[in-house]
């Protein structure tokens, strides 16, 4: 079996699956796009893959809240299979709407290993859809962010990206943070637009305790070569480094 098989999990309203699939293939994966209904028909399909990506978009129109319907499907019908997938050392990445799915299904951050939702992503402080480039400081407590020493710049595109948590959970949340919004000097600035949505502690991405499941609001699949950058010069760090890190982990650990 090819251990470099990745699954881009889509639903009605997902709209970032094609570019995500493309970037995965650039990094060496044999990648497939499947609708969540296909997985529900045969849950054993999940076992064929080593990496699941839940991409961005507006799953089921976000009519009951961003990512909530897909999260409900996973929590009620696939949580056992997803749990086994994670326990087997495999990887999951949720991007934007996919991050919202992971949060609302309880897969992230899963602080008490009970898949109960204990953080959230809510409407931006600006009360509008934010579509802009932002800067990120990364932390090495995830497979995906390992070895990234410089500030990353990536685009965002979301209306519900404000990360919130109960204040008493700060000590536990701290160890899950993998990305924060920063200024051009890498410094934390809580003001808009450096922090584009008002996230507590400028949090842009988190992982579970294993570091193998991560969710992020920025879109790494939209910046995989220099020609896609909004300025002439950049520091050489593109979003596909996250997918390259996933490939390296699978090669060395699975």
Task: Write structural notes for this entry.
It is built from 6 helices and 11 strands. The chain is 24% helix and 24% strand. The mean pLDDT is 96. Helix 3 packs across helix 4. It has 254 residues and is an alpha/beta fold. Helix 1 (17-26) links the parallel strand 1 and strand 2 (30-35). It has one domain (5-253): Rossmann fold, CATH 3.40.50. It is globular. The chain has a 9-stranded mixed sheet. The chain has a two-stranded antiparallel sheet with strand order 5-8.
Distance between the termini: 12 Å
What is the tally of beta strands?
11
Q: What is the CATH C-level name?
A: Alpha Beta
Fraction of helical residues: 10-25%
Radius of gyration: 17 Å
Q: CATH homologous superfamily, by name? A: Class I glutamine amidotransferase (GATase) domain
Q: Flag low-confidence runs.
A: none
Q: How much strand?
A: 15-25%
Q: CATH architecture, please?
A: 3-Layer(aba) Sandwich
Helices, by number, come to: 6
Question: What's the SSE blueprint?
Answer:
Elements: E1 5-10, H1 17-26, E2 30-35, H2 36-41, E3 51-54, H3 68-87, E4 91-95, H4 97-104, E5 119-122, E6 130-138, E7 152-158, E8 162-165, H5 170-174, E9 177-182, E10 203-207, E11 213-216, H6 241-253
Parallel strand pairs: 1-2, 1-3, 3-4, 4-11
Antiparallel strand pairs: 5-8, 6-7, 6-9, 9-10, 10-11
Question: Outline of this structure?
Answer:
The chain is of the alpha/beta class and 254 residues long.
